[in-house]
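Hypothesis: this fold can be encoded by more than one sequence.
Test: take the structure tokens below, design a sequence, compare later.
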């Protein structure tokens, strides 16, 4: 310790006081960001949450200084919004708890990418231009975070304004990505106006007006969209089944018949209310239903669909075995007996009077929870990291699937965390989906912020694509969301029930659906230019010094 103390900068009392003040300021920024997110009802905080942070990083010069203070802000932000990821229930898997704890420390470190880009820009273009470019740096990071093996873009800033319905209507043009830019530009303009107040009246008016105009324009657009919205006239009645099984115990052997009976009884009630599409949640039964070992259970489901003339979508584990004459996919795994197989977190689609069952295999898997990151590069990790509940080794699905029974309707099914990816969900709508169905199981996390956040993020997918979104969740929240992002009806958490109601069907496409990557692409391009310019300037500076 004495060795490190020798090289540690000695701070004066004034410097210590200033450092303490700066830390408190960025902690405030982190708190305001966290309190903007569901289930807290104060999204307005997000429009000025970055102001204390901007004040601090503008006065810091080295990359280390900027990143240390940035880490503190994002740690507080992550702690307030993601505290629930470890589950922390008495039955929770120890590995899940460890992963949740690690996420709280690792996640803020990844958020140093935009602060590093800000530093590069500051050294190349100066403070003011760098602040004006900061929104693009942040969005470039948000998008990159959503496409890597470590992806967990839960804290995308656009998700923080879901409760502000008029404000999110512009997402049909800009998506959640564009909402991030708008939020950050409002923060930047407000900060610059505060900075110029009493110093440069002209600039003060300019920046204040810019912040006001951006905010007002978005609200006006939203109010016009809501007031002028016309329904398509086409709808389907859905029945959402919420069995409320304990996710930690349902994977134990036994009680399969009892579980299926609960699903079918709730489904019968929904069918009696004229539901034509029944939806069961993610991994509804803890078995590979179509493996050939559960013919009686499959028969009961078919009979239910035939008897009531309904379609049924259900989340379900799915497995495929490959033998000597089969073409074995590259990502196939192997049983102890040497048989090759693939297994997926899937959606199965049952149609009345039809024995073929259509499938969709989940593509966007949860890092660690459903698939070990970088497994192809480090295959040994698969043996080292496995949940006790046995769901950490799914194969990755490969097809964007639209279920289109008898031309009656076109429906897309996404599984759990897939619903938080804007560009991914837009692919289903671009392919023709008239309705988005989400099957999920948020019961792992108890009565925490997680289930509320997950449900409300789905409202953005509805607005972006102008599609109704229906969610069937094992323990809640199951709901019907209209194309304006408004929740029409919903269940409570942890109750065994069903929800029946009409969901609108649409086939028009929004600008965002057609061009979902426009704003991320612009942000990546700007960030790339800044990096190149910084490196060129650094090379020129080194050559001059030599």
């Amino acid at each position: 310790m004495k060795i490190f103390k020798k090289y540690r900068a000695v701070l004066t009392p004034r410097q210590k006081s200033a450092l303490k003040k700066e830390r408190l300021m960025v902690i405030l920024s982190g708190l305001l960001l966290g309190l903007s997110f569901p289930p807290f009802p104060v999204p307005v905080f997000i429009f000025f949450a970055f102001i204390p942070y901007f004040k601090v990083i503008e006065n810091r010069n080295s990359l280390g200084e900027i990143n240390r203070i940035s880490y503190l802000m994002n740690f507080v932000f992550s702690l307030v919004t993601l505290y629930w990821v470890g589950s922390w229930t008495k039955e929770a898997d120890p590995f899940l708890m460890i992963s949740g704890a690690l996420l709280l420390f690792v996640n803020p470190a990844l958020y140093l990418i935009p602060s590093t880009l800000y530093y590069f820009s500051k050294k190349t273009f100066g403070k003011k231009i760098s602040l004006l470019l900061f929104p693009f740096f942040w969005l470039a990071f948000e998008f990159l975070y959503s496409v890597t093996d470590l992806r967990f873009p839960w804290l995308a800033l656009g998700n923080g304004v879901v409760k502000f319905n008029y404000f999110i209507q512009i997402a049909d043009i800009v998506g959640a990505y564009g909402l991030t830019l708008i939020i950050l530009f409002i923060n930047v303009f407000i900060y610059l106006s505060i900075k110029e107040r009493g110093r440069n009246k002209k600039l003060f008016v300019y920046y204040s007006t810019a912040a006001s105009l951006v905010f007002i324009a978005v609200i006006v657009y939203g109010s016009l969209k809501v007031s002028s919205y016309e329904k398509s006239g086409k709808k389907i009645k859905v029945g959402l089944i919420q069995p409320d099984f304990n996710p930690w115990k349902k994977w134990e052997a036994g009680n399969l018949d009892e579980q299926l009976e609960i699903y079918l009884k709730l489904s019968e009630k929904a069918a009696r209310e004229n539901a034509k599409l029944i939806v069961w949640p993610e991994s509804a039964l803890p078995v590979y239903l179509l493996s050939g070992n559960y013919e009686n259970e499959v028969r009961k489901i078919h009979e239910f669909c035939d008897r009531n003339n309904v379609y049924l979508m259900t989340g379900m584990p799915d497995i495929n075995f490959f033998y000597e004459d089969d073409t074995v996919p590259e990502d196939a795994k192997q049983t102890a007996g040497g048989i090759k197989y693939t297994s997926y977190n899937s959606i199965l689609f049952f149609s009345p009077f039809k024995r073929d069952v259509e499938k969709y295999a989940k593509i966007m898997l949860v890092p660690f929870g459903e698939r070990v990151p970088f497994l192809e590069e480090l295959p040994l990790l698969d043996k080292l990291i496995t949940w006790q509940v046995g769901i950490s080794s799914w194969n990755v699905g490969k097809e964007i699937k639209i279920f289109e029974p008898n031309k009656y309707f076109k429906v897309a099914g996404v599984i759990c965390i897939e619903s938080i990816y804007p560009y991914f969900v837009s692919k289903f709508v671009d392919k023709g989906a008239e309705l988005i169905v989400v099957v999920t199981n948020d019961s792992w996390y108890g009565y925490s912020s997680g289930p509320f956040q997950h449900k409300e993020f789905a409202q953005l997918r509805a607005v972006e694509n102008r599609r109704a979104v229906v969610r069937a969740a094992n323990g809640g929240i199951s709901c019907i969301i209209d194309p304006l992002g408004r929740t029409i009806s919903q269940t409570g958490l942890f109750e065994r029930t069903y929800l029946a109601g009409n969901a609108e069907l649409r086939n028009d496409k929004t600008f965002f659906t057609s061009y979902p990557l426009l704003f991320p692409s612009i942000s990546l391009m700007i960030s790339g230019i800044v990096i190149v310019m910084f490196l060129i300037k650094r090379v020129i500076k080194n050559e001059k010094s030599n």
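The radius of gyration is 25 Å. The first strand starts at residue 235 and ends at 242.
Hypothesis status: open.
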